[in-house]
Design a protein that fits this description.
Elements lengths: L1 E5 L8 H13 L4 E6 L1 H8 L7 E5 L10 H7 L4 H10 L5 E4 L3 H12 L9 E2 L2 E2 L7 E4 L9 H19 L5 E5 L10 H11 L4 E6 L11 E3 L2 H25 L4 H20 L7 E5 L4 E5 L5 H16 L2 H10 L2
Parallel strand pairs: 1-2, 1-4, 2-3, 4-12, 7-10, 8-9, 8-10
Antiparallel strand pairs: 5-11, 6-7, 11-12
Helix pairs in contact: 1-2, 1-10, 3-5, 4-5, 6-7, 6-11, 8-9
């Protein structure tokens, strides 16, 4: 099992990416981790650490977060993300993990690794936190801004297989993000998608409103990338300010500080529920090989958890199962 890690991608690269890789290499000695990036910089953060399953692959260019994805991937042939994608395409790695530019990673996945037969648009599928700790897989949350009903059908099938294979949920419930729960609600695309999902080989439970997401009304939430990304950013933007306001409220007086000390375990638990680091990364489903997109602000814990996530996906033959189901072969 070999995972190519884009060591130069992300807000805290390469330091925290390398630290996460070190922790993962120690935890899973049977997994070979290929750190792709500027060799001198990567070595500096290894700090003399020598692990038999950790290797550096030199790549001297970096795709920045504000670069135009297609131009960057095509022009920067020796960028860490591009080199990592080539390792996968050429069979020298089984999966790619990156916290870098999302658009560039999607482009590298499509142009270098290739799209799965029968899939028109790959989907970004992160786990959304829920109050019962079960989490909800949502797709697409930003890979494609424009989608057709047929794309949402493919998302539903891929997401259902992912929940079964990676999370062990038998017959995962599939919901469609909409402005109301009634079947006739929504725009023309969502109405057409509703009909397709009713006839699909998945456990479709109907429309789901955004206000109900944290209560986990389904195990797989299907939506187009535009609406899905707005949902994701709204959730991310709410969690931080909410915790800040709670911190302020519990430090206003000695009485509130005492109350805060008593409630601290519960508040930490709430913070962890909303923390992306515990989920690792979001797979780009619909590509020929496993590609995992980590949050841009990923720290060492997030990288390690993304490696764990990738290991489970490969052990359960996720990509092979999706390809077989979609192609019907």
């Amino acid at each position: 099992m070999r995972i190519a890690i884009d060591a130069m991608g992300g807000d805290h690269a390469p330091e925290l990416i390398v630290q996460g890789a070190i922790e993962a290499a120690r935890e899973w000695p049977d997994t070979r981790l290929l750190l792709v990036g500027r060799e001198d910089e990567v070595k500096a953060y290894l700090k003399g650490e020598s692990l038999p399953n950790l290797e550096i692959i030199h790549a001297d260019e970096i795709i920045e977060s504000d670069e135009e994805p297609v131009k960057a991937v095509r022009r920067k042939k020796n960028a860490s993300m591009v080199v990592a994608a080539r390792l996968v395409r050429e069979g020298n790695a089984d999966a790619l993990l990156s916290a870098g530019n999302t658009g560039a990673l999607m482009t590298a996945g499509l142009l270098i690794i290739g799209r799965m037969e029968g899939i028109e648009r790959p989907a970004l599928a992160p786990m959304l936190p829920t109050m019962d700790d079960g989490g909800m897989l949502a797709l697409d949350l930003g890979a494609n801004m424009d989608a057709k009903p047929e794309h949402l059908l493919q998302y539903a099938i891929m997401g259902s297989i992912y929940r079964e294979k990676v999370h062990g949920i038998a017959g995962p419930r599939v919901g469609l993000l909409n402005v109301g729960t009634e079947p006739m609600k929504g725009n023309e695309m969502s109405k057409a998608a509703f009909e397709l999902l009713q006839a699909a080989p998945v456990h479709f439970v109907g429309n789901v409103e955004a206000r109900d997401v944290l209560e986990r009304p389904c195990d797989v939430l299907v939506c187009d990338g535009f609406a899905g990304n707005i949902l994701l950013k709204a959730m991310e933007g709410t969690a931080g300010p909410l915790m800040k306001e709670l911190r302020k409220a519990f430090t206003r007086s000695w009485l509130t500080k005492l109350a805060g000390a008593i409630m601290m375990p519960g508040l930490r638990q709430l913070r962890n529920k909303m923390d992306y680091k515990h989920h690792g990364g979001a797979p780009l489903l619909g590509l020929n090989s496993l590609v995992v997109k980590c949050h841009g602000s990923s720290d060492a814990m997030a990288v390690k958890n993304a490696v764990r996530q990738a290991r489970i996906a490969m052990e359960t033959q996720l990509i092979e199962t999706i390809a077989k189901e979609i192609s019907g072969k």
